[in-house]
Amino acid sequence: MVKKREVIDKSGNKHSFSEGMAGVIATTSEICFINGAEGKLIYRGVPIEDLAEKSTFEETSYFLLYGELPTQKELHEFEKRLKKHRAIPATVLDVMKQMPDDANTMQTLRTVVSLMGLYEPKNDEHSVKETSGEVEKLIAVFPTIVAAIQRLREGKEPVAPDNSLSHAANLIYMVTGEKPDDYAARVLDVCLILHAEHGFNASTFTSRVVISTLTDVYSAVTAAIGSLRGPLHGGANEGVMHLLDEIGDLESVEKVIKNKLETKAKIMGFGHRVYKVLDPRAKILSQYSKRLAEITGKQKYYAMSKKIEEIMKREVGDRGIYPNVDFFSASVYHYLGFSLEIYTPIFAVSRISGWGAHIMEQLRENRLFRPTSVYLGDIDRKYMAISDR
Ligand code: CMC
After folding, report:
1. Phi and psi (nearest 5°) for 35?
2. Whether residue 1 has pLDDT greater than 70
3. Can you list the domains of the chain with their CATH numbers?
4. Whose CA is nearest to atom 3 of ligand 1?
């Protein structure tokens, strides 16, 4: 149920509106459907469970961008184009080496993407071909940027992409310097599929608002990265890991979570604007977290996560507060060996496909986003000279 807020302005007019635009229809879209009451998510008609089981990130990205599942030939050519654009331009990499290595990784990613826009030929006409070309280049290069950010933080040289590897396997390789086993690569591939698209979430809406001014794709994506960084959005996966570390062990879970709920603190990785039942992505990720805990023999983070889920269900489940996508992705990334600082950038590596699809859709039938607000300030105030104040 969408909560309405009622206000009366200074002229005595009554207004009713939805705070945070909850439930407000901003436009139409054919990319993603979410049924928050039943916990269903579909990309262009196909259930997320099918894509997670049968697709790859590359295929899902093509599907999101172009609206049809690719033929073998189309997929092969798409993968070839992505591989061609994996490398970071040398001039950009040089600048990256000058950036502070203790900076926030999402701020660095945002800055690098903005910088790359300077080297992109002008696409002022927003032709479909040029726009999709820019989007594909960004999908291709995001893993290389994120891996380079991590390597430079560790005082190591970035690892060049390996074109014999898939998008997901190559990301692990560029971060760790070692080729992953097939299972680790597949788990990350599934994570990328699950995070790729989610309707009018804050960062996607940001990208659509920005591109609706007919500015460039890089500006829209830069703004979207800034939006995804926030702890109420993509930054929550990092928040979940902080929470697990703060709790420390399985025995302390009950006390810490109950204490947080009593003090009205938010539990990161729980709650959602649309889902009022378990997020279907969390359900899939929970299974991968369990399996990775068994394989690595390190049960702690999975066991703590399950305990938090159980307590939250008992305490606030009746209010529709359940794990969202960020909750189990934290322990999955931990088991895959990623540093906490790149959890949210990995989200961006995936969501760039969704942003790209929405940018292309917005440009097809563009109308400038320009909403309004209820003015509650003064309406009849005299200007007072500075000498009299
Ligand atoms: N822990 C405890 N209480 C919560 C939580 C939570 N995680 N989420 C919502 N609530 C409570 C909230 O305190 C409020 O209570 P009251 O009515 O007593 O004031 C009520 O539920 C409604 O919450 P809200 O923040 O007004 O709801 P919203 O629709 O504006 O927020 C949300 C959705 C995702 C911002 C929120 O659930 C939240 O802050 N969650 C924690 C951060 C998080 O995990 N974000 C990731 C979201 S999903 C992936 C993504 O988009 O990146």
Report:
1. -110, 100
2. no
3. 34-230+348-364 (1.10.580.10), 236-336 (1.10.230.10)
4. 266
